[in-house]
Amino acid sequence: MKVLIVDDVELNYQLLFAAVRDLCDEGVFIAKRATESIEMALREQPDLVFMDIGLPDMDGLEATALLKNNPNGKHIPVVIVSAHAQATFMERSRELGCLSYMTKPLSIRAVRDLVAQLKSSDRYGMNQTRDRGFPTSLAAP
Fold first, then answer.
1. CA Rg value for the chain
2. What is the C-alpha separation between 16 and 25, in angstroms, rounded?
3. Which positions ≥6 away from 105 have C-beta within 8 Å?
């Protein structure tokens, strides 16, 4: 499994890295800017992207939209990570077909459970159903 973490705050990306590194046999990549994350996702084709909303060059929702509108990136599962539990952000995440929306502070257990569940599932089969909303079993408590 290969994971891309997108966050510009060192403490945040280190926390996610520590949570998933032993579950990712193909590597964990870190991008600190939205533009860098899109390029990296298209090049590396990760099995999962953790995308922060508050990035310095553009917000993570805009970056996710650009990734999802690219034929080479539309299949990549994205989890939005935010310090804000705003309904408008959550709704936009659903519209973009994101796998889940997690609020900070993150539950390490929820992050690990999400990665383990995705790793044990059929990545593409799980990701093709877009209208089901966020799975409650994958949402952070």
1. 13
2. 15
3. none
Per residue in 63-99, pLDDT (tens digit) is 999 999 999 999 999 999 999 889 999 999 999 999 9
**Amino acid letter at 27?**
G
Which token pair is 53? 């909303």
Tell me the C-alpha distance between 21 and 18, whole Å: 6
The strand ranges marked E within 1-134 are: 2-6, 27-31, 48-52, 78-82, 100-103
Break the chain into its structural domains and give their ranges.
Answer: 2-126
Domain 2-126 belongs in CATH node 3.40.50.2300: yes
- Residue 97's closest CA among 66, 130, 71? 130
- Rounded distance between C-alpha atoms, residue 128 and residue 52, angstroms: 23
pLDDT lower than 50: segments of the chain: 124-141
| 87-92 contacts at long range (C-beta below 8 A, 24 or more positions apart) | 89/53, 89/61, 90/134, 92/61
User: Measured on CA atoms in the order 141, 1, 18, 74, is the torsion positive or negative?
Assistant: negative
- pTM recorded for the entire structure: 0.86
